[in-house]
């Protein structure tokens, strides 16, 4: 037993160096992106500040926010932490993202990757012993060029899992190209990678699921067909180096337009309480399409619509109503033509929200209100002429 102890010690030392080397490899490839620091913010205790605006130009494909902090131990655990707000523009309240970390923290650096360009700024609120936040841009990462008819919608690059923001695929055919670098394969069960794509809203049904394992699958392309709309991803990772997810849509897969449906009018800026102007529908079947875009930082939008039939001197009546929290949808109106207007109440929406009125030209057209009277008048005159001619012929025969 005494002779085996030195061998055991040597094996343990060897395993230690192998594991250290593996971890070093795991976090080496991101260094090849040539990170350049734009700004560094440090502070301690209770600290609130706003950075100067910084510009990310189109030549920079990737940038990131890196943070670390030492938690306070003299306050409750839930009271210590850091919150970072990312805003678009040099001023204003266009908040894009909120990053929050609370409680006891292991002191390791954490980061969030971005692929957008423009002018941004940060608002920071902390309650820590000390903290450091860095804004860095990559000068070495080169994005893949556009190919054929596939156009990039968005991309996500990172090392840790999170739930993405909403992205929009207008074309029915789109795909998810992905790859990840586990960095090491000593502990494959700890280097898993999973991406689940969901439609916006409360639906539990996933559109697509991607699973990667370090010893078998580390990249791939997943296609989605006949499914345009608004989506988000839930990204789950183990201990990995980095991942890249690129969403692209096929611009040649645009759905064929519904030739029977034509636009009547579009109402923009669906915010607050409003009554629209009057519009005429000449076919019995028509519909209202709505597209709601939530205000940044607000709860889910809601919409209530009342459809009024304007009957002139006879007054007006509600022929249909709708209350919804869905961001997109259609309200169908059947067997109703004439002059209408809408009264709606929209909450937590922004000025991009719209209502589109369309009519089905294949349905029965409406006759103007004077048309039946004119037909009846013509018919009456025709009957009178025929009767008169018949009466004149009868009188002529009597004379003869």
Largest sheet: 7 strands, antiparallel
Beta strands, count: 25
Q: Roughly what is the average pLDDT, rounded to an integer?
A: 78
Share in β-strands: over 45%
Low-confidence stretches: 11-31
Helix content: 10-25%
- SS field, number of helical segments: 2
Number of domains: 3
CATH topology of the largest domain: Jelly Rolls
What is the distance, rounded to the nearest whole angstrom, between the alpha carbons of the first and last residues? 149 Å
Global shape? elongated
Task: Give the SSE map.
Blueprint: H1 4-26, E1 35-50, E2 54-56, E3 63-71, E4 81-88, E5 95-102, E6 110-114, E7 118-138, E8 150-158, E9 162-163, E10 167-169, E11 174-181, E12 193-199, E13 208-212, E14 219-224, E15 229-237, E16 242-250, E17 261-267, E18 272-275, E19 279-281, E20 286-291, E21 302-310, E22 316-324, E23 328-333, E24 338-347, E25 354-360, H2 370-399
Antiparallel strand pairs: 1-7, 2-7, 3-6, 3-7, 4-5, 4-7, 8-16, 9-15, 10-15, 11-14, 11-16, 12-13, 12-15, 17-25, 18-24, 19-24, 20-23, 20-25, 21-22, 21-24
Question: Any key phrases for this structure?
Answer:
7-stranded antiparallel sheet; 400 residues; Jelly Rolls
Structure explained in plain terms:
With 400 residues, the chain is mainly beta. The protein has three domains: 27-142, Jelly Rolls, CATH 2.60.120; 151-254, Jelly Rolls (Sandwich), CATH 2.60.120.1540; 261-360, Jelly Rolls (Sandwich), CATH 2.60.120. The protein is 13% helix and 47% strand. The chain has helices at 4-26, 370-399; strands at residues 35-50, 54-56, 63-71, 81-88, 95-102, 110-114, 118-138, 150-158, 162-163, 167-169, 174-181, 193-199, 208-212, 219-224, 229-237, 242-250, 261-267, 272-275, 279-281, 286-291, 302-310, 316-324, 328-333, 338-347, 354-360. The strands form five sheets. Strands 1, 2, 3, 4, 5, 6 and 7 form a seven-stranded antiparallel β-sheet that branches. Strands 9, 10, 12, 13 and 15 form a five-stranded antiparallel β-sheet that branches. Strands 18, 19, 21, 22 and 24 form a five-stranded antiparallel β-sheet that branches. A hairpin with a 5-residue loop joins strand 21 and strand 22 (316-324). The longest helix is centred in the C-terminal third of the chain and has 30 residues, at 370-399. It is elongated, with a radius of gyration of 33 Å. It starts with a helix and ends with a helix. The relative contact order is 0.12. The model is unreliable at 11-31 (pLDDT under 50).
């Amino acid at each position: 037993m005494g002779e085996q102890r030195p061998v055991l010690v040597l094996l343990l030392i060897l395993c230690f160096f192998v594991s250290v080397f593996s971890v070093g490899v795991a976090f080496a490839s991101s260094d090849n992106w040539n990170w350049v620091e734009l700004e560094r913010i440090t502070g301690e205790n209770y600290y609130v500040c706003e950075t100067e605006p910084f510009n990310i130009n189109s030549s920079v494909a990737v940038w990131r926010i890196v943070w670390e902090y030492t938690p306070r131990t003299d306050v409750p655990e839930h009271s210590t932490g850091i919150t970072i707000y990312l805003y678009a523009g040099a001023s204003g309240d266009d908040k894009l993202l909120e990053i929050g970390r609370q409680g006891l923290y292991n002191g390791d650096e954490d980061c969030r990757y971005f692929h957008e360009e423009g002018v941004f700024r940060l608002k920071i609120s902390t309650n820590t012993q000390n903290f450091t936040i860095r804004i860095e841009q990559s000068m070495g990462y080169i994005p893949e060029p556009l190919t054929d008819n596939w156009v990039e919608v968005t991309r996500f690059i990172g090392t840790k899992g999170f739930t993405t923001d909403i992205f929009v695929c207008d074309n029915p055919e789109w795909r998810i190209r992905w790859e990840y670098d586990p960095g090491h394969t000593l502990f494959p069960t700890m280097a898993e990678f999973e991406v689940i794509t969901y439609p916006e809203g409360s639906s539990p049904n996933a559109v697509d699921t991607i699973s990667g394992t370090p010893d078998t699958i580390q990249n791939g392309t997943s296609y989605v067909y006949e499914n345009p709309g608004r989506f988000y991803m839930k990204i789950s990772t183990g201990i990995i180096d980095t991942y890249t997810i690129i969403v692209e849509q096929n611009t040649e897969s645009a759905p064929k337009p519904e030739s029977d449906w034509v636009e009547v009018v579009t109402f923009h800026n669906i915010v607050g309480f409003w009554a629209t102007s009057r519009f005429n529908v000449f076919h019995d079947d028509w519909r209202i399409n709505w597209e709601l875009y939530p205000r940044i930082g607000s709860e889910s939008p809601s919409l209530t619509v009342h459809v009024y039939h304007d009957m002139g001197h006879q007054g007006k009546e509600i022929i249909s109503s709708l209350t919804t929290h869905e961001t997109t949808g259609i309200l169908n109106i059947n067997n109703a033509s004439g002059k209408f207007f809408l009264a709606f109440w929209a909450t937590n929406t922004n000025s991009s929200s719209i209502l589109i009125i369309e009519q089905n030209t294949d349905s029965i057209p409406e006759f103007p209100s004077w048309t039946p009277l004119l037909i009846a008048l013509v018919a009456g005159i025709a009957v009178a002429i025929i009767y008169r001619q018949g009466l004149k012929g009868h009188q002529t025969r009597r004379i003869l």
